[in-house]
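Quick start: read one record
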Amino acid sequence: MPLLFPYPVEGVAMAIDERSRHDLYVKLEQTLGAAEASTLMEHLPPVGWADVATKRDLDVFATELRAEMSELRSELRGEMSELRGEMSELRSELRGEMSELRGEIGGVRGEFSLELAKAVRTMVFANMTIAVAAVGLAFGAAQIT
């Protein structure tokens, strides 16, 4: 798409395209010489002057970019704060559940201790009964002979 010079040339706006750039180079080459024409053409922008960013354009862009970054920073801080709150809630829930689990384990440990004590008591009485019976059998056998 041809671009227009930002200023009129002899009252006519001129489109910048490859042909007009070439025509300019040929005229400069005839007037200044090949080396000078090439040097001068290299200093022209590859597009029209309307597409060249000015310092003012860059300042506006920098201001907009800073505002956008500030907004993103605020959003990020808000989300991080929200995340901290959620993590704190999760930590509290986890601590509560761990405390409950400790209580349940303590209850199971207590029940296990009672059952173990009953089993030991039963085994002791069973062993005593067996021992008494064995002694009784020994005495009975001794009296038979």
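Strands lie at 3-4, 15-16.
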